[in-house]
Amino acid sequence: MEHLDIVLQNVRGMLNETVSIADKIPAGYTPTWAESLWLSLFDGRNELLTFTALAFLMHEFVYFGRYLPFLVCDYIPALQKYKIQDNKPVTREMKWRCLRSLMFSHFIIEGPLMLGFLPIAKLAGIRTTEMPLPGWTEMAMQIAV
Fold it and tell me: Whose CA is closest to 9, among 126, 129, 130, 122?
């Protein structure tokens, strides 16, 4: 319970802050093009909310983007013979019910988890907007753990 209190205090503190690029770039360091682009997304905005929105948008793009080819295949008659349950048609109502359930899950369950990621990542020492951004080896180690 003590760890949860620490994270919640960190979240409350982060909700009242905005990011200034000048504070993130060390003296004498020239950010790369990618680092400048990354920092520009946060400049003058709340870091927690911006990071959460970016994570959520990336998640939705990947999640639905990987489904699009299968959605297209549902409408190609020649590919219907490859359906796993060929005797069970997928109706428009079934698709909408699935989408509603999915969006509930994404916004109500996954959204708050994404909101809690940045404070936990900061507590774990993962650099997100501090310059220079971590190299590939450091990122690989953090992802592996």
Answer: 122
Does the pLDDT value for residue 10 go beyond 80? no
Could you report the per-residue pLDDT of 86-105, keeping only the tens digit for each? Answer: 788 888 999 999 999 999 99
What are the angstrom distances between the C-alpha of 119 and each of 44, 51, 55, 107? 19, 11, 14, 19
Indicate left, alpha or beta for 28 from its phi (over 0: left) and psi (-120 to 50: alpha).
left
> In angstroms, what CA-CA distances link 17 with 5, 6, 45?
19, 17, 8
Give the pair of three-digit tokens for residue 116: 């809690």
Report helix angle 47-74 to 2-15, nearest 10.
100
Whole-angstrom Cα distance, residue 26 to residue 130? 9
Indicate the residue type of 35. E
Q: How many residues does the chain have?
A: 145
Q: Can you give the pTM of this predicted structure?
A: 0.78
In this structure, how many other beta carbons lie within 10 angstroms of the beta carbon of residue 113? 11
- Which residues share a beta bridge with 43? 19
Peptide bond into 132 cis (omega under 30): yes
Grouping H, G, I as helix, E, B as strand and the rest as coil, residue 43 is strand
